[in-house]
Every structure is written in C-alpha cells, then in structure tokens.
C-alpha cells in the first residue's frame, strides 16, 4: 500500500475537474448580486439628495456663498463680485477681529430695497437656501473696532485711530476727496469719536470710505434726534470673507491687513 492509499485527506490535483454544482452556485450568486443595483434614474435621485443634504450642512456649519451688493468695498471688492464666507473662525465664542471683512445680516434699515432683494428665480432661490447661490439681505464691511475699542477720526494725516494707534489703510481702502479715511456722512468733517464699543458688538466700515452705508452713517454726531446705533451685534455676523471667487481673473484669498496687528487691546 502506497502513502497515497493511506492518506484520506490528500488534496485533489489542480487538473481535477470542478464540480458542476459548485460552478452553478457561483453563477447564481453573481446574478443575484447584479440584480441588486438600482436603476440609473434612482441612483441619480439618490446622489442628488445626498448632495443637497451635504450642501445644507456645509452652509450651516462651514462655508456660504455671497455677493457684493454695492460699491462700498472698492477697490478690493467690486459690486456683484462673488465671495466665499467661512464660519469656523468664529466658533467656540471667538468673535470677529479687527481687520476682518465680514458678512452680517442687515441690522435694520442699512440696505435699500434693491440691495435687500435676494434671488428672484425659483432655481436661484432653491440654490440660495442650500448655500450654492448668493443670498440678499446682507452687508459686507470691514471690522474696525471690537468691544471696548475707541475709534477716533482722524489724525492730521486723515488716518482713523483705534485705541490711540493710527491705521495705515493705503493698501486696501479708498479715502474721500479730502484724503480722509473716516469721513462723516453728508459731507461732514473728519472729526468724530465713537466708543467704547459695547460688549458683543463691532464697529464696521466699508473700504470705499466716501461711498459706504456703514457704521459712520449711523453715528449721532451733529443730529439732535437720533435713535440709530452705529454698532453691529456680533451675533448677526455670518462669517469672515476668505475668498474672492468670481470673476476668476481676480480670484484671491483675503487676509487681515497687517496694520491691525499694531492696535493694542482696550484699557
């Protein structure tokens, strides 16, 4: 008797034929697997649904698209420019910082009817709700002062001072015809003081200082009756502008100007 006769567990040689029943079972399994695929139209609807859910989550927590509604942020940001706003920087109680370009909800009466209007077409309105299309009713300005700050306009060179330190804004802001970076509304003089900025608020200005409906327009300087507030509640701030998205020829990431690093904390 040979060793092969004595070993009942010997493995079949590679050239042994595979059983037909085994092959049939494998074919049946493959057929069932193929039948589980959804039709193309159902897969398309499912993918669109997932995309919309993701868009809503991204809008609510991370990034949202807006547009520049006026000429107030020239020369850097031009009317109808498309921008992206990120919200992560203001998580965990961290509010806007001096120098940030921010988007915020209209505090009430800061925008006219045309600037407040959002998308009119049905598709645009839907895309706006999920953050894929710019929405109306918001303003874009630069934060000049945060809570506790005192803003003075202006020094002998027409520069706005924050907590006693003048800002060098030549690189991004446009002064009025007199070279002042903090003009008064209605042709007033560059001579006003505001602050301390209340807790939880910010003082904002457009970069186009002679054509911006910002905090300076709502100052009560020179008015006998005034119920306006020049401050913006930080809770109304949607987020910080970090990308000029469109037109593509001017695409760029936006940074906080270096001059704000020299401003001391309020005393």
Overview of this protein structure:
By secondary structure, the chain is an alpha+beta fold. It has a single domain, classed as Umud Fragment, subunit A, CATH 2.10.109.10. Helices cover 20% and strands 20% of the residues. The protein has helices at 3-6, 20-35, 40-61, 113-116, 122-129; strands at residues 63-67, 82-86, 101-105, 138-145, 151-153, 161-162, 165-166, 192-194, 201-205, 231-233, 237-246, 252-253. Strands 1, 2, 3, 4, 9, 10, 11 and 12 form an eight-stranded antiparallel sheet that branches. Strands 7-6-5-8 form a four-stranded antiparallel sheet, with no helix packed on it. Strand 5 (151-153) and strand 6 form a beta hairpin. The chain is elongated. 28% of the residues are buried. Mean pLDDT is 77; it is low at 8-12.
The poorly predicted ranges are: 8-12
Fraction of residues in H or I helices: 10-25%
**Oligomer type:** single chain
Radius of gyration: 31 Å
Helix/strand-derived category reads: alpha+beta
